[in-house]
Write a structure and sequence with these properties.
With 416 residues, this protein is α+β, with helices and mostly antiparallel strands. The chain is built from seven helices and 16 strands. Helix 4 crosses helix 5.
Length: 416
């Protein structure tokens, strides 16, 4: 076959890899061209472009729905965690209350066994720990030196502790030269309290060799009977029921219940005087028995926070003043300052307010029935801050007022 010349070539004529010359139509040429790699790529790109608008809308909608589901799940999960945390703390609080009730010493009945058992346990732990951790040899030493021998006095006098409060009635053996007033002064109680505890009628009856019962504080020690209540005991001895409840070694809990046979200390109480025989023909009126209003004469740094009388004065176990007043009586700030605590729950304090006066002094107002201030609020001297109530550990409506200087509690009467 004769080789074609350039003049015989057309646009739709192509050479093949064979030696034969073939002729293709324009349709076949186009079909062959669309089967190339680049044409397939552009065809797919164009097809994707045509559907990209609808696909973008679908993808965006799906993403928003997923995000909404995630937000709903997060909200429910956080609420679930919050509920579980609250339940945990409620369980913890209930466990604490149960433990406290179980370890309330049962009005002192378990005081000595628990104390002795605790000391014995500490000794055992110390001995075991010493044997485990000791790794060195200690050289033997002569410990029989004459000047190291311990001696003790043969005196029969009772050693009176002065560095700690007493919880129980103690006995004292009278020695030559003792008087009832001197014994009372040594034990920091009134002579009348010792007389009442020992059924004495005359100080001159005390003589050497006598054994006297000495109460822990001035007042009366009462053996609880079956039908006694804290209020009936207080009425019998003309005492403040709150003072009986506050005395720590009476072991009275929030129920204010007494245990039959319990030795109850009645601080500030006095035994009723024996009834005098009637005088024939006497028609005069009996002497007045109006309650005593205690007047505090202090520095005047603070003003009296409430209109009421002092029901209970400060002591080592009661570092505040109890002002007796009717329920709802207004309570005023004793001085200008800023409220640092205004709480509706404070254990024994109940509803209470603390005011920082900025000069090292902080005043406390407890057992309130309501509050008129909030934390962070500035108050002026004499401003209404609350009302008298009986919240917390309380036997009757009153205001418990404390003054703290430099973090230490002081006698409030010294600054009023």
């Amino acid at each position: 076959m004769e080789e074609p010349s350039l003049q015989d070539s057309r646009d739709d004529l192509f050479y093949t890899t064979t030696s034969d010359f073939l002729e293709y139509t324009p349709y076949e040429v186009g079909k062959r061209a669309r089967n190339s790699f680049f044409d397939k790529f552009f065809d797919k790109t164009y097809s994707a472009y045509k559907i990209s608008g609808r696909g973008l809308i679908v993808a965006t909608t799906a993403s928003l729905l997923t995000l909404w589901d995630l937000l709903k799940f997060s909200f429910v999960y956080i609420k679930y965690l919050k509920t579980k945390v609250i339940d945990f703390f409620i369980l913890l609080e209930n466990s604490k209350d149960t433990a406290v009730k179980a370890l309330m010493w049962r009005r002192g009945l378990l005081f000595r066994p628990a104390t002795h058992g605790g000391v014995f346990a500490i000794v055992i732990v110390a001995v075991v720990a010493g044997g485990l951790f000791s790794r060195s040899q200690i050289a033997a030493q002569d410990l029989t030196l004459a000047d190291s021998t311990l001696t003790t006095s043969s005196s029969t006098e009772t050693i009176i502790p002065t560095d700690r409060p007493r919880a129980e009635v103690v006995t004292y053996k009278v020695v030559k030269g003792d008087t009832l007033s001197e014994i009372a002064e040594d034990f920091a109680v009134s002579a009348a309290s010792i007389k009442w505890a020992n059924n004495l009628t005359d100080e001159d009856t005390v003589k050497p060799g006598d054994t006297l019962k000495v109460p822990p504080v001035s007042g009366v020690v009462h053996d609880v009977n079956k039908d006694d209540t804290i209020y009936s005991v207080a009425k019998k001895y003309k005492a403040n029921p709150q003072a009986i409840a506050d005395f720590p070694f009476n072991y009275i809990d929030q129920s204010l219940a007494l245990v039959t046979g319990q030795s109850l200390v009645v601080p500030g109480g006095s035994k009723p005087a024996p009834l005098a025989a009637p005088i024939p023909g006497y028609t005069g009126s009996s002497p007045s028995r109006n309650p005593i209003n205690y007047a505090a004469v202090g520095s005047g740094l603070f003003s009296k926070p409430v209109a009421g009388t002092v029901n209970q004065a400060p002591s080592w176990y009661h570092p505040g003043v109890d002002f007796g007043a009717a329920y709802g009586t207004p309570v005023y700030a004793a001085g200008s300052g800023r409220v640092i605590t205004a709480s509706s729950y404070g254990g024994g304090f109940g509803i209470h307010i603390f005011v920082d006066h900025g000069n090292g002094y902080v005043t406390a107002y407890a057992h309130l029935s309501g509050m008129k201030v909030n934390v962070g609020q500035n108050v002026s001297k004499g401003q209404l801050i609350g009302a008298v109530g009986c919240s917390g550990f309380c036997t009757g409506s009153h205001l418990h007022f404390e003054v703290r200087r430099g973090g230490s509690k002081i006698n409030p009467l010294s600054v009023l």
